[in-house]
Amino acid sequence: MKYFASLLIAGMLHLGCAAAAQAEPVREIEQLVQQFQRNIIDKDAAALGALFLPENNSWLTVLDDQEFAAAKAKHADMPRVRPSSYKGFVKFIGESKLPVEEKFYNVRIHTNGYIGTVYFDFDFLEDGKVTNRGAESWHVVRTEQGWKISSMVFSIGR
Questions:
Q1: Alpha-carbon distance 94 to 33, whole Å?
Q2: Rounded distance between C-alpha atoms, residue 42 and residue 26, angstroms
Q3: Which of 33, 57, 144, 146 measures 20 to 30 Å from 26, CA to CA?
């Protein structure tokens, strides 16, 4: 019985250490998320762009049914899924004449300390008004310079 209790305590200590080891990367990724939001509000295009891994970065916009129907009505060949780059978004934020903000809800972070995902619902606001909303997912990687966004996929709806 003592042996079993010792194994149980050792296992609990190991799990506690593993959980503590994962807490720091989660905090670091939370800081990345907060910095992203701050850079949008501040319209700091250089700082926003620096949050992305510049090589092999992917960016996809996925239109919901309502947005897709509206887009098809304007342009018959409009695809539901549109590849792009973070650079266009960064430029839009930096050049925006109106106040802009992206609010995040239900943020979920999963990581092993080297790679991770961030998933959340969002509202994008221009001049205090929601212009689109949806869900967003990031792949993040830990680099020598800290955590970077390596890819982003998001849906757009209203």
A1: 18
A2: 24
A3: 57
Task: Using CA atoms of 151, 149, 110, 145 in order, give the dihedral in degrees to the nearest 10.
Answer: 150
Q: Are the C-beta atoms of 121 and 57 separated by less than 8 Å? A: no
Q: How far apart are the first and last CA of the chain?
A: 60
Q: Which two tokens stand for residue 21?
A: 């080891």
pLDDT digit string, tens, across residues 143-153: 999 999 999 99
- For 141, residues 6+ apart whose C-beta sits below 8 A from its C-beta are 53, 114, 115, 116, 147, 148, 150
Q: If we measure between CA atoms, which residue out of 56, 38, 58 comes closest to residue 48?
A: 38
| Sequence letter at residue 10 | A
| The token pair that represents 60 in the structure block | 């996809």
Domains of the chain: 23-156 (3.10.450.50)
Q: What burial class does residue 155 get, using C-beta atoms within 10 Å of its C-beta: 0-12 exposed, 13-18 middle, 19+ buried? A: buried
Q: Is the pTM of this model over 0.85?
A: no
CB 62 within 8 Å of CB 80: yes
Whole-angstrom Cα Rg for the chain? 20
3-state secondary structure of 26: helix
Whether residue 79 contacts residue 72, with contact meaning beta carbons closer than 8 Å, is answered with no
| pLDDT for the residue numbered 5 | 52
